[in-house]
Specification:
Length: 350
């Protein structure tokens, strides 16, 4: 049963193979001698991202009435499943090791991740671990202190800051390299990788072919539906890097910038409870709340645990959460969690 697979911790779980990636709740300060350097624009990315967004907005505004009923069902559902590959797979499983998964589930999650069409798994995981270890410092790939546009999409339009290259290599990735699923899809030590052809087929080719051959959708509508779904999922992912670091409350830790943002949680399958996540990055729920309406990724992981495919689900004890809120929180309501008054003595809480 599910309840027998959850482990509650009084302190962050310690694992040498995830150095600084799952247990750190506050960014590690960088040395004063942070390398400086210019970050020239990557014009290929600037033009490509701009064209994708113009195509997506224009095609939706001018042709949404022409799409068949099943295209309206197929494209959003395909996007949701791809999103689970990011949230339950790349993020909560591989980047944070907040739970463990048996081989069939790891293969399935890698398959779903390929449907999303984002960067290779190894790079995504390394970037995210670097983000948590050096949050909002020059070594953070999408440093939110540089403004909304940079943290949302601008970081993909320019060369990386030298500090990212210098300190990002300090993040331990040995556990990822040891995973045969990652090795098959994306092994940085091997010049031949399967990720790119698999990703291109699952993200762009397959979702275009299915509507055309299954319910006679036009090629034009099918292709543009794929573009819209792809751009939508990209921006949903970007919201966690931008909106959830700028707008919202901080009931768990007022000392860090990430916030609780239910709007972001809605669009990202539960990844918007970001102040909690940066306080307890090793929690498989990535939130305190238990409701599934704004955290379907948690529901997915728990369903997988019922089938015996997910296990060792990690979460902090409620007393630990309460102590953290009383000590570091801003005193605001944590919505679907609890309201912790920092001025009220801990022993009076029930």
């Amino acid at each position: 049963m599910y309840s027998s697979t959850v482990t509650q911790f009084e302190e962050p779980p310690k694992k040498s193979n995830t150095e600084g990636s799952t247990a750190v709740s506050e960014p590690i300060p960088l040395p004063k001698e942070v390398p400086q350097g210019v970050q020239p624009l990557i014009w290929r990315n600037v033009v490509g991202i701009a064209i994708l967004h113009v195509l997506a907005v224009h095609s939706f505004a001018t042709n949404y009435k022409e799409a068949k009923f099943w295209t309206w069902i197929w494209s959003p559902m395909y996007g949701v499943m791809a999103g689970l590959g990011i949230t339950a797979g790349a993020h909560r499983l591989w980047a944070h090791r907040s739970y463990s998964a048996k081989l069939p589930l790891r293969i399935f999650l890698a398959y779903l991740y390929c449907m999303a069409g984002q960067t290779c798994l190894y790079k995504w995981i390394r970037d995210h671990r670097t983000h948590h270890r050096f949050t909002e410092t020059p070594a953070d790939p999408h440093d939110a202190s540089r403004g909304f546009f940079f943290s949302h999409v601008g970081w993909l339009m320019m060369k990386r800051h030298p500090a990212i290259k210098k300190y990002g290599t300090k993040v331990d990735m040995s556990d990822i390299l040891a995973d045969p699923v990652i090795q098959f899809a994306d092994n940085p030590n091997d010049t031949f990788r399967y990720y790119t052809p698999i990703m291109l087929f699952l993200c762009f080719v397959l979702p275009t072919l299915v509507p055309v051959y299954c319910w006679n959708e036009t090629w034009y509508i099918s292709i543009h539906a794929v573009i819209i779904r792809y751009v939508w999922l990209l921006n949903a992912t970007f919201l966690v890097n931008s909106f959830a670091h700028m707008w919202g409350n901080r009931p768990y830790n007022r000392l860090v910038k990430p916030t609780e943002n239910p709007t972001v949680a809605f669009f990202t399958l539960g990844e918007g409870w970001h102040n909690y996540h940066h306080s307890f990055p090793w929690d498989y729920k990535a939130a305190e709340l238990g409701a599934y309406s704004l955290n379907p990724t948690t529901a997915f992981i728990e369903v997988m645990s019922w089938f015996g495919l997910a296990y060792d689900l990690k979460t902090p004890k409620k007393e630990v959460i309460e102590k953290t809120c009383l000590k570091k929180g801003d005193g605001s309501n944590s919505l679907w969690g609890h309201h912790y008054n920092r001025e009220e003595p801990l022993q009076k809480r029930h």
